[in-house]
Amino acid sequence: MSILKKPAKALTAEDYRKLAKPLGSRVPYPMMGVGYVTDDKGKRTLTRFLGTLDKPLNVTSERDLDDIEGTLIRNMPTPEMLPLFYEVMSAMDPRNERRAMFLKGAPGAGKTFLGELSGKTISPEGAIKVDCTDMNLNELFFETVLDFNANANFYDALNSKIEKYNAAKTQEDRDHIFNPMSIDILEDCLGDAFSREGHKIGIDWAGVKDAHKDEDGKKLDTKESIERAIDGLKKVSTKEGLDKLGGNSLGMATQEGVAWKAYKEGRVLILDEVNRAKRGTFGVLHGWMQFIINEIDDCRVRNPLKEKGDSSKTHLHFKRDEMASGHFVFMTGNLEDDSDEVLEIPEALSSRIVPQHIPKATVQGWQHRICQILTGIPISTLYNAQSDVWDKNPEEFGKKLVEWRMLREERVVPQHQLAMLRRWQDVMQATENLAEFLDSTAKAVDPDSDWQKIGKLSQLLDDISDSFKREASIDFRKITFFINKAFMDKPSVRPPQGPGAPDIEPLIDPMDVTESPEDIRRKMGTHMTYVILDWIISNTYERKKDDLGNQLMQFAAECGIVDPHLIEGMASNRRTFAELLDENPFENKDLEGRLMLVQDLMCNYLRREYPEISNDNDDILPTSVLKRTMEDMLREDVAPEFDAERNVLVFSRDPEILESEPLTEVAMVEGQANKPSLDTMVSQYSLLATLAAPKLREHNLVSLWKQTLADHNGISKGVEGLKDTSLMIADNDEDADLAMTTVTVASDDRTKEVPLHVIWNKHTDRVVVVGEGEIDSSLKRAFNDSRTYYVDRNDAEAVKVLRSGLRFVAGADTKEASRDLKGAFMMRNSLTNGDDWCDKRVSDLLLSRDVVNHKPQYLTESIAEQKPL
Amino acid sequence: MRNTDNKKKTFRGTADELARHMAPYVARAKVSDTVPYKAGESYLYEITAGWESDLLRRDTDTLTVRNGFELEQAFFAPGIKTIYVPQDASITRNVIRRVCSRHGQGKTVFYEVNKDE
Question: How many CB atoms lie within 10 A of CB A61?
Answer without folding.
Answer: 27
